[in-house]
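tool_call: predict_structure(chain=1)
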Amino acid sequence: SESLAGRVEIVQLGSLTLAECGANTREKRWIRGGFPRAFLSRSANDSSAWMTNFISTLIERDLHFYDARLASGLVRRMWTMFAHYHGQTTNYSSIASSLGTPASTVRHHLDLLSGLLLVRQLQPWFENIGKRQVKSPRLYFRDTGMLHSLLGIHSAKSLLSHPRCGASWEGLVVEEILTSVPHSDAYWWSTQQGAEIDLVLFHKGKRFGVEVKRADAPSVTPSIRIAKEALSLKQVTIVHPGAKSYPLAKGIKAVGIDELIRTPTCIYEP
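tool_result:
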């Protein structure tokens, strides 16, 4: 058979985006996720049941096609642990210690889930700036419905009161941006001193920063100012759930989620 190298284009098809679902279903999309059967279910209970069965089928049957060495019980505990690390720096050793398994097993399984487009390991950006920088990827489940199911979240009330609510919102917005906004490369950045920014995007030879906040009236923090200066970011956009978009400082602006959905490239515009 002939190789297809150089003759095909690979297109990644993730779950439904916020833009595809529509602005009036944003909360529903956040809670249920974007897998069509979960999102379009007649009730929240039906959606939760579908996602629970979907995860069980993946763990107990489908994953054995790719790696038959891991017991289903260990995989389920590993996925739950990954869900609690959503939006955080991946600490392979800590996860492995909690599960009683080698760090290499954790790393291998995360790489497998990344290849299956179930999780995203956002790589760190390094800059020669004389600061100690974090060198581990940040972990996100690509579908919030799957994340919520693993965390035992099945309603808006339980989501809003959950300790991982902010991280869930961050992951939703990060995935929307990386799916909808054109870019050549994407990273996250953090220093050991605590300065960080959620996304560093490269577009047409320039660097742009994105910070995700679940506050209706975000402000410019010292962390954002440090990131903008240290990384020479042309612009920093703070995405928030409010309706308004407005400038905050020179080269820094706040953008409401609805504007991001309507015009994804607004993060590149002054």
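agent: Residues 44-60 form the longest helix (17 residues). Proceeding to next step.
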